[in-house]
Amino acid sequence: MKRVTGIGGVFFQANDPAALSAWYTRHLGIDVKPWGGAAFDWTDPKGTTAWSVFAADSDQFTPSRAPFMINYRVDNLAALLQALRDEGCNVLDRTDDGEYGKFGWVIDPEGNKVELWEPPA
Fold first, then answer.
1. Which domain of life is it from (predicted)?
2. Is the peptide bond before 45 cis (omega within 30 degrees of 0)?
3. For every residue of the chain, which 3-state class applies, written as one string?
4. pTM for the model
5. Taking the CB of residue 113, how many other CB atoms lie within 10 A of it?
6. How far apart are CA 63 and CA 61, in angstroms?
7. pLDDT tops 90 at residue 96
8. Is the pLDDT of residue 7 over 80?
9. CA distance 4 to 24
10. What pLDDT, in 10s, does the model give residues 74-90?
């Protein structure tokens, strides 16, 4: 019997939920609904969602102090990172490009590190 089949949701707290939701809507295009969240269906393009546990002393989430990081799939990482810079967002200078695709990061207004991922062609 299969038990876990994917990520069912990502939930986190915010000091100002309305303002943080508005930031994610404006800068990352997440369609936050009146109930306070969004639903993602990964059928087009077909894809997967990764789930992983890191050691407590990992620096993977730095500079965020939060014990989590959310990864969002994107179509054009370079263009999105430039748009976020142009909009005054805190985009980290470092990007990675490897066998699993391209990765970049932005810090949201609450200090959470957000990972942006462009899958390989």
1. Bacteria
2. yes
3. CCCCCCCCCCCCCCCCHHHHHHHHHHHHCCCCCCCCCCCCCCECCECCCCCCCCCCCCCCCCCCCCCCCEEEECCCHHHHHHHHHHCCCEECCCCEEECCEEEEEEECCCCCEEEEEECCC
4. 0.84
5. 20
6. 6
7. yes
8. no
9. 28
10. 989 999 999 999 999 99
Instruction: Give the separation between CA 80 and CA 86, rounded to whole angstroms.
Output: 10
Tokens at residue 2, please? 């299969």
Can you say whether residue 6 is alpha, beta or left, with left for phi > 0 and alpha for psi between -120 and 50 degrees?
left
Tokens coding 38? 């969004």
Query: Which amino acid is it at 13?
Result: Q
Do residues 92 and 106 touch, judged by C-beta distance below 8 A?
yes
Amino acid at 53: V
Question: Closest Cα partner for 70 from 18, 12, 23, 8?
Answer: 12
Residues belonging to the chain: 121
Tokens of 3: 């038990």
pLDDT at 19 (0 to 100): 94
Structure tokens at 17: 């939920």
